[in-house]
Amino acid sequence: MQLNSLTLTNFKNIAEAHLDFSPKINCFLGNNGMGKSNLLDAIYFMSFCKSFTGVPDSMLIREGEDFAMAKGKYERSAADEELILGLARGRRKSLKRGGKEYGRLSEHIGLFPLVLASPADIDLVRGTSEERRRWMDMVISQGDRKYLDALIRYNSALEQRNKLLRDNISDKGLYEAVEMQMDMAASYIHPARERWIEELQLLFNRFYTDIAGKGCETVLLGFEGSLDGGVTLTQALDAARGRDEAVKHTTVGPHRDDISMTLNGMPMKRTASQGQCKTFTTALRFAQYEFLHRVSGMRPLLLLDDIFDKLDAERVERIMAMVTGDDFGQIFITDTNRAHLDEIVSRTAGTYGMWNVDNGVFTR
Fold first, then answer.
1. pLDDT tens-digit profile of 220-244?
2. Does residue 45 carry a pLDDT above 80?
3. Counting C-beta atoms within 10 Å of the first and last residue's C-beta, which end of the chain has fewer, N or C?
């Protein structure tokens, strides 16, 4: 898949911009806070219908303006595609594909695959289990429509059960009706997560070794599921009912799952250096890229936001060699260091694009 051009109006600090992109490498150079990451956020929004920063949609509209718009022209599966995103204060966002608006934005997820690596990825290692679950769900959902549907159904039923607990409802029949819906969804979610971790681990190990070099430390991913041991969710919820009534929320289920991440047998979050964490998360993103390539049949867009920070020269060199090779498709890279970007484009056979970014203005 390829993004040929992007037009933005009033998106964050970008008043107006139109960019025609190279099919391979696109570089954005500028100081912090100039709008490089905002451009990547706009591209990200076109695939996921939300900002990668997690801010409300209203904060994506330029200060003092009432609306924002983004128009992307793509080449996808040998066909031309156009996406138009509209944001307006006080109104729901609109996304049109080929001039037709989506009824449900969830229908769009996975159709325009994309992978973003950014400094915020440190939260995958050192953040909460919620961060890792959100990432896991986002990746699996792009390649598995049934998983996304099961996840939506589970979260809806979970919200209903939590409301029963908060309202001190004691009707067993009401709990059983809601828990049946949760169990049906969990019976798909749990094994899908287990399979995904197993597949990702193989890809991840290869990329970590390629970045860190042979003889590097041993890294592992593992799935920490709340339903391990053959226990059904119905059984687990029934056993936890008394405790849940006391704390007023549901304490067992897929919403409590986690991913273990270890370095030489020790938890990453406690023992890894900044450089090891950056290597770990970059390898995770590259493994995510390869996974999505396999399930979608398309090469996702790859967005690399300030990726070389905290890495030594050898690891930077290996990443440069990887992203300019044939295993990756179209790439968008931001950096404050011109030397990094010059080195990348010098390795690129064919055309590339490089822009200077200054207060939301993009200059070739």
1. 999 999 887 778 999 999 999 899 9
2. yes
3. C
Q: How far is the C-alpha of 292 from the C-alpha of 200, rounded, in Å?
A: 10
Q: What is the mean pLDDT of residues 275-303?
A: 94
Q: What is the DSSP string of 6-66?
A: EEEEEETTEEEEEEEPPSSEEEEE--TTSSHHHHHHHHHHHHHSS-TT---GGGGBPTT-S
d(CA 71, CA 33): 23
The mean pLDDT value of the chain amounts to 92
167 phi/psi in degrees, rounded to 5: -90, 5
Please give the structure tokens belonging to residue 267.
Answer: 């938890």
Dihedral over Cα of 285, 126, 123, 26: its sign: negative
Sequence-separated (6 or more) residues with CB below 8 Å from residue 195: none
CA atoms within a 13 Å half-sphere pointing along the CA-CB vector of 253: 26
Question: What are the strands of the beta sheet with 100-101, ordered from one edge?
Answer: 14-20, 2-11, 67-76, 79-88, 94-97, 100-101
Which residue bears the tokens 């749990």?
A: 190
Residue 23 has pLDDT above 80, yes or no: yes
Give the Å distances, CA to CA, from 133 to 258, 259, 281, 331, 337: 6, 8, 15, 26, 33
Please return the burial class of 209, using the count of CB atoms within 10 Å of its CB with bins 0-12, 13-18 and 19+.
Answer: middle
Cα separation, 204 vs 197, in Å, equals 10
Asked whether the CA dihedral 275, 51, 224, 126 is positive or negative, the reply is positive
Of the candidates 282, 308, 357, 359, the one whose C-alpha atom is nearest the C-alpha of residue 26 is: 357
Does the pLDDT at position 337 exceed 90? no
Residue 302: pLDDT band (50, 70, 90) is very high
| 47 burial type by CB count under 10 A (0-12 exposed, 13-18 middle, 19+ buried) | buried
Classify residue 357 by its DSSP letter: E
DSSP H helices, 249-330, are 268-271, 274-296, 313-323
The percent helix, strand, coil of the chain (3-state, each to 5) is: 45, 25, 30
